[in-house]
Each structure stands twice: as C-alpha cells, then as structure tokens.
Amino acid sequence: MNRYVILAIGSLDYLLSKTGNMLLRYSSQEVVAIIDPNHAGKTSDKVLGWGKKIPVVRSFNKSKKHDPNCLVIGSAPQGGILSDLDRKEVINAIKEKCNIISGMHIFLNEDGEISYLAKKNGVKIVDLRKPPDPPHFPNGSWLSRKFPVLAVVGSDCDTGKMTTAWEIAKSLKSRGKRVEFIATGQTGILLSGTGIAIDAVKSDFMAGEVEFLLDNCSDQTDLAIVEGQGALNNMFYSGVTLGLLHGSMPDFLVFTHEPNRDLDVTKWKIPEIKDMMQIYIDLLKPFKKSKFLGFNLLTFKMSDDDALKEISSFKNEFNMPATDLVRFKDSGLVESIYENIDKWN
User: Fold this and answer.
1) CB 263 within 8 A of CB 269
2) Exposure check for the chain: N or C terminus, fewer CB within 10 A?
3) Would 135 be classed as within a structural domain?
4) pTM (predicted TM-score)
C-alpha cells in the first residue's frame, strides 16, 4: 500500500496544492503526512477546512516517524521549477529510499543529481507530465466513435474541473453506467493510474493525444468524461484548452466556475458566463453540435446561504441544473447527464 507524504511548502491551501488536495480528498487513507513548515504542528483539516486529520510537519525528516514510502510533490508552480527548499526535501526523501512522484514540467528523471541519487538508492521517480514518445497525431477518429463524450470546461484555471469530472464519473458508475475518466493533468493521472498531461504535449499533437486516450476506450463505454484544463478566456492557457476541446470533440459539456472570483489567475477580468459558454459551442460548431448540461460551482469560500443562493441563481438564469457536487452533492446535474447518455444515438 502507498504511504504518501505530500510536499506542499508554502502551498497548503485550497488552490495551490491541487495534486496534494486531491490525494487528501480521494485517497486520504494513503496519506500519512504533509510537509509545510508554515503550518507545522497542525492537521490538514484545520488548515484546509475539510478532510481527515493528517499531520503537517516541518520537513521530510520529521515525517519519517509516519513511515512514508513515497513523496508526492503537491503543487506545480508556474514554470515548473523545483525550488531550493523543495529540492532539499526531495533529496532527503531519496536518501531514505522513498519513491518520488512529480507533476512538475521539469522532469526529475532528467535532473543529474536527483536521478543519480535515485539510482544509487534504488528509488523510483515518476514524472507524471512526461508525454508519450512517439507522440500521436490526430486522425479524426471522433467521426466513428461508438459512445458519447462529455468535456468539463470552465471560466478559469482552478475552478474544479478535475474534481467535477471525477465526481460525475463516480456517481454515474454507482448507477451502473460504464464510464471512463479521461485524465489530462498530473493529478487525474495519479488518481486514475492512466492519462496524459496535455499541457506537456507539443501543440501539434495535443488533439491527437486526447483522441488516442478516447480511442483506447471500449466501444461498450456508456460515457467518456474528459477532464478539462485551463480556459478559453485565459490568455496564458487557452491554447491547451482549445487543443483539448478539438481532440475530445465532446457531445456534452459541463461548466465550472468559482462565483466569488472576478479576476482569473492572470488578473484579467472573467467575462460573462453566457459569453464564455457560447465560445465553446461556436468553436465546436464547424465540426459537430454540442450542448451544455449544467454547472458545477466551486463555493468553498462562501457561506451555505450564499452558496445556495448562487446555485439557485445559475439554475434560474440558464435553466440548467447547478450544484456544488462536493459540498451539496447532486442537484439534478448527474441525472441530466444520465438521461442524455440514454438519448445519445
């Protein structure tokens, strides 16, 4: 069994430590400690406001009493560079024969010092963002696909697209549907055990890599759910979003949004929701018809009353199901998806 220690120096909050947070939410039984000197002595539930009581420690050496066998780098900062503090903890973990899982853009297997120490100590390093070699070029296989595809998109980065896809897949599976979760980021890959980090793929092959993942699904699949990345209105990451959209050619879409966020991660004003939704539909229109089935909102920072009011507002404005699947569970969203699966021809 895995015994993860999550490396989250200065990033243990509800947004920055995405990979770490998803492990805490969906694989908490495998997490034994978290490294963040800023919160050392606390437990994760006190820092994040949810989840189990996972101890937060100052360093890897302080985590050894919890007997970890794998260190997971919990965040992936812009630029993907390993900080000096993180590097020190990774090296200390390797010296204690602890495996390393990294979602960084910089591949640790290609780092001379780290890869040397790993080989010396018999340690395995997993670079989750390492793209396929050789890459896969698109071939238009969506034209003969035997099952529908749902893509989760949103108004910005960090609006809960992976969580939304995972929660929908989990709920539909519990209802007997054969669902494939298509991981397109390092966190989804870690949870599901398969997938491709699409933002590490050369642009010519982005659509092809998503297509390849879908081509590997059984024809008996009831629905493939594609984890979204970035946003079309985000000037830094829109290229990734578009490649993902045209690679998946979704029949259905679910929109994610954090209602109390006015600026995106680039500090640019987030456009009107209806305008963003129309852009997604328009970019698919030359190839196929697609439609939105509802919303999953990230309401973590809102009170219960404010969150429920916002959810109700979305339902009324767009005449579609809306909810926060983590906080309030389903409110017609999964049922709408279920019904549309059965109607798909």
Assistant:
1) yes
2) C
3) no
4) 0.93
